[in-house]
Design a protein that fits this description.
By secondary structure, the protein is of the alpha/beta class. The chain contains 15 helices and eight strands. Helices cover about 50% and strands about 10% of the residues.
């Protein structure tokens, strides 16, 4: 299959490499022509996945029209807060009757509070859409580490197409029709990863992290159900699976943000030090908190992370607020 991956970040690059290995004809699009040229010259994405040579058959492109021409599948890999601008660039060249979209970004747009499927509908109109999500760090996928993810689409045949396209001996894909929960699971777990990092940064220990992760998945399921998803999906790969890997891994950018917050560093300094590397959970905390308030859903962990990031609350105060909440039944 002819496939274009839209975004030359770490995740987009890792998936492009994987799809090349699977025998597909793959183009990788990047928004900055000078950096695309640098990758052509060095055969490496030094900015996001240093140390891994790019596949010999991977085509690098900075022109959107050339990038998507003749491609049957478009992988949307831009960070969620840049997805709108990517889709607007794509719109004049998108062929809804010949091209399918597979989103791999994990976030909720600030301001509009839209999921990525909703953005695609708004900007591109009618489209065949799937989302691929689950516990899958780019740094491990590019090495061929055994990985399992889920492809969600309202169109069963499209979910199965994505499954067949990505499946390999090291990359296993399951299917579901629960697009809402898979999108929300991938987005909300990043906020929980910031909370996990705060716990690590404050050296609060394993009990604290286990409690946060358990209550976090309950919180994700509550909000997901209120938005039309199935709570059971959050017990799968795109929910608890992605939550575990993001809250515990040294690869996690969101956990890193939380860890630095827990050590007393400011969010401004942390993000400045990260440069172009994006931690999706920072913006998602704002969007998720707004969504929860809009729907009247109680999300104490999300709310406290929002307070730390945007309201000047200290991590210690946030932990104290969570631990001093009123007594309740576990499954209220």
């Amino acid at each position: 299959m002819n496939i274009t991956v839209l975004s030359d970040g770490g995740w987009g690059t890792a998936l492009a490499q994987h799809l090349c290995t699977n025998g597909h004809q793959v183009k990788l699009w990047g928004p900055f022509a000078d950096y695309v040229e640098e990758m052509r010259r060095t055969h490496e994405n030094t900015r996001f996945l240093a140390g891994h040579k790019l596949h010999d058959k991977l085509v690098l492109e900075s022109d959107m029209q050339r990038a998507v021409k003749d491609s049957a599948m478009l992988i949307l890999a831009s960070p969620s807060q840049y997805m709108r601008s990517t889709l607007e660039l794509l719109a004049p060249h998108f062929k809804f009757d010949k091209q399918v979209l597979v989103n791999v970004a994990k976030g909720i747009e600030t301001g509009t509070l839209k999921r990525m499927s909703e953005l695609c509908s708004d900007i591109l109109g009618v489209c065949r859409y799937a989302v691929l999500s689950g516990p899958s760090h780019a740094e491990e996928v590019i090495k061929g580490a055994p990985t399992a993810v889920v492809a969600a689409s309202c169109d069963e045949s499209l979910a199965e197409m994505v499954q067949e396209t990505f499946m390999s001996d090291s990359f296993r894909v399951y299917t579901t029709d629960d697009v809402i929960s898979v999108e929300l699971g991938g987005a909300l777990k990043n906020v929980m990863a910031i909370a996990a990092g705060v716990i690590d940064g404050m050296t609060l220990g394993d009990n604290s992290k286990a409690a946060m992760m358990t209550r976090g998945i309950a919180e994700m399921g509550r909000l997901g159900t209120a938005l039309g998803g199935n709570a059971m999906t959050f017990s799968g790969l795109s929910g608890i699976g992605d939550l575990i890997v993001t809250c515990t891994s040294g690869h996690s950018r969101n956990r890193h943000v939380g860890e630095e917050l827990g050590r007393g560093n400011s969010i401004e300094q942390i993000l400045s030090d990260m440069g172009m590397v994006v931690a999706e959970g920072v913006k998602t905390a704002e969007s998720a908190n707004a969504l929860a308030r809009e729907r009247g859903v109680e999300t104490p962990i999300i709310s406290e992370i929002y307070n730390v990031l945007y309201q000047g609350k200290s991590p210690g105060q946030a932990v104290s607020a969570l631990m001093s909440r009123r007594a309740r039944s576990e499954f209220d």
